[in-house]
Structure formats: C-alpha cells, structure tokens
Predict the structure.
Amino acid sequence: MDGANYSVVSEFVFLGLSNIWEIQLLLFVYSFIFYVASMLANSLIVLTVATDPHLHSPMYFLLANLSFIDLGVSSVLTPKMIYDLFRKHKVISFGGCITQIFFLHIIGSVEMVLLIAMAFDRYIAICKPLHYLTIMSQKMCILLLIAAWIIGLIHSGTQIIFVIKLPFCGPNVLDSFYCDLPRFIKLACIDTYRLEFMVTVNSGFISLGSFVILVISYISILVTVRKHSSEGLSKALSTLSSHIMVVILFFGPCIFVYTWPHSTSHVDKLLAVFDAVLTPFLNPVIYTFRNKVMKMSMRRVCSQLISYAKIS
C-alpha cells in the first residue's frame, strides 16, 4: 500500500498541558525561567571549557559536549511549548512533527552515549589512573563523540524511515504538547502493532539496557575502590553521586515513557516537561556544584564577559 496516497493529514493538533489559566501561567513562568537559566548555564559551560586551557581534559571535553546537547534538548521542545501555552489552537505541520521527532531521538541517543562515555572516563580515572592519559587520549575522546553522533543518526533515521511513510487520514489530535513517537504512530490508518513494538525495542529497551550498563559500571568502580581503601571509597562516592543523579534524571522518564505498558497521558506529560525543561538546567548545576576547578573557571569567564560588556 502506498502510504502517500492515503496521507491526507497536513497538520497535527496538540491538546497541550492544561486549559486552566492559573496552571498555564504557572507553567509559563516555570518553563521560561528554567529555559533561560539552562541556556545560559550550558552556554557558559561550553564557553568556559573551550576558552580555559586548564579544562582541556577528557572529563571536561565530555561535559562540554553534554552541555551542548542539553542546549539542543531545550531548544527542540521548550520554545514551542511556551509559545503554545496560551493558544487555543495548538498545531504543528506534518513536516514539523517529523522534524521534531527526528531531532529529539538524535539528541537523546547522543546524550545516552555521552553519559556512558563519561562513566567510562570516570572508571579509567579511578580504577586505572596510571593509564588514564594513554587510554583517554584526545583521539579516543573524538572517536567517542563521533560514535555518539553516528549512533544517534542511525537510531533516529531508522525510525523516521518507517514513520514518514505511514498513512494518516485522521484523526490528527495528539494528547501531548510535542510530537512523541508512540502517540504519533497510533494515529496512522493502519495496524501499527509491529511498528510500536519496534519503537519499544529501539528506544525503550535500548534506554533500559544503557541504564543497566551504567549502573553496573558504577558498581564496579565502587567495588574496585573499596578493595583499596575506605577513604578512596568516600571520594569515589562523592565523585560519582553527581553522575548517578544525572543518569537517573535522564533515563527515568525515557524508560517509563517507552517501556511502561500502562502509562497515562498526564504522567507522560509531567515527565516530558521535567525532561525538557528541568533536566537540561540540573545537569550543569549537578556537574559543577562540587567541582571547584569548574566553578573558578566559570567565575573568570563571567568576569571577563562583564568587563567586555562594560568596555563596549
């Protein structure tokens, strides 16, 4: 069946987050504040790592790339969500919906690989410190980054190839504030059971598998350190606690949305808002809160920016 002959839907309508004015206002203030804060914080981290020679190390290279990805997470969903909050007719074109899904899955996959790479970096730094610079060389960091983007493109492109050819003849209403793949597929005019299963395997179980890999890696780090000294264990816990928090914040909503069989639209929306608005802000806060070197470098960059602003 040629899907193009049956696809008469040219746009999709979002039901949005709420029709209650007070809740809309609260969501607007919350979303706008955290969106601006996350954009400024992540931009500052990228700028700081790029300009400070003391931060040209694998750990900060990966952190800067994570912040760059978080800029993308915020930009793909939040502006459209804020714009639609007070609109009665919330629409997005078919092409816009496909584009949103494509970039969401690329960004999500790249962030997933980066978090695994950061766990690997901490494993080498803590468990094999003498070989750290040899293993985590500049070439290795670049290869990890290239691998992250290739995996992201393959993951997202594979799903889009199947989705873009689906026939849509109505209805065109999405009980969400963005184009999420599971709800989007269910609007097709054909039986999509196999495609939904593919999405669950491709996104859900990959997320779950990556989460398990990360948990195992953190446990192995703690076990290795514990064998050497209890003092080292406390330092490792202090270092890894921020990584573990970010992993839970990122993977929790993904695993729930794509693998939980009885999820509801209200819970999905809440998790999506949290993931799109709050997580990109929390990532830089969590990673820099206990890092004295990073905080000092960020203060220097801020001082330089203020000085340039005064001069100009």
About this structure: The two ends are 63 Å apart (CA to CA).
